[in-house]
Amino acid sequence: MPTTLSVNVNAIAMLRNRRDLPWPSVEALGRLALQAGASGLTVHPRPDQRHIRFTDLPVLRALIDDEFPKAEFNIEGYPSEEFLALCEQTEPEQVTLVPDDPSQATSDHGFDFRATSEWLKPIVARLKKGGMRVSLFADGDGDVEAVKLAKATGADRIELYTGPYGGCFDNPELGAEILERLGKTADAALVEGLDVNAGHDLTVANLPALVKRIPRLAEVSIGHGLTADALEYGMAETVRRFCRACGQKV
Q1: Contact, 116 vs 99, CB < 8 A?
Q2: What span, in angstroms and rounded, lies between the C-alpha atoms of 156 and 249?
Q3: Which one of 29, 34, 64, 106 has the fewest beta carbons within 10 angstroms of its own beta carbon?
Q4: Residue ranges of domains in the chain
Q5: Could you give the residue numbers annotated as active site?
Q6: How many CA atoms does the CB half-sphere of 7 hold within 13 Å?
Q7: From the CB of residue 218, how many other CB atoms can be counted at a distance below 10 Å?
Q8: pLDDT tens across the length of the chain (250 residues)
Q9: For the whole model, what pTM was predicted?
Q10: Nearest to 63 by CA among 30, 16, 39
Q11: Rounded-to-integer distance, Cα 13 and Cα 86, Å
């Protein structure tokens, strides 16, 4: 199956939040993305609501339920009690847990599973009891033991942190090395029975190589690069470009 695309709308919300005005509309641009072929929407509601606001969640939930019932809602964030309650209220199809400190500008590392595996187990169980698929943000460094510990939490998937890979846009040799480490991590996860997602700084240019190295890559979640391209190509055409880069026929 081709890799699916979940459009992260946080950057759209950040632009909206520069003014006390309702545009650009997260709902309207989310609708355009889904109409153009995206398989879902992703949000990362941080405690200070500097991007997505808590009030956006029921709006996007209703958009998917009412107009795109085959699409998925993915909510990512640090598993504080407030975040877990938001997930239980919104009932996304997927929750992606990340080890972010609230002060971080963006996600920039995966979980240290040696230190957090036991802590994550009841959190994963709580979310899965609510019918949500659980994915854990993971460093794609080829650490097989860490992957086994991720599996032991009860999670369904890992999401490979691809920031270092995306950062090698001007250094193809280093990019190839990082890509191979990501691939080895994915290989280990698939052996353990974990599905594999990926996200962070992915672009139309670097996606094809990632999908080729990880042909069973389930989903990519993309916000910054996709939103930047949408300023040039428009949201609908940008989504189609990214879907094609994922190997989809659109």
Answers
A1: yes
A2: 27
A3: 106
A4: 4-245
A5: 44, 76, 200
A6: 34
A7: 18
A8: 899 999 999 999 999 999 999 999 999 999 999 999 999 999 999 999 999 999 999 999 999 999 999 999 999 999 999 999 999 999 999 999 999 876 666 667 899 999 999 999 999 999 999 999 999 999 999 999 999 999 999 999 999 999 999 999 999 999 999 999 999 999 999 999 999 999 999 999 999 999 999 999 999 999 999 999 999 999 999 999 999 999 999 8
A9: 0.96
A10: 30
A11: 18
Tokens of 238: 């940008």
Q: How far apart are the first and last CA of the chain?
A: 14
Torsion (CA) 220, 235, 167, 162 in degrees, nearest 10? -10
Judged on CB neighbours under 10 Å (0-12, 13-18, 19+), 184 is middle
Structure tokens at 158: 């890992």
Token pair belonging to 204: 């139309």
Give the single-character DSSP code of 195. Answer: E
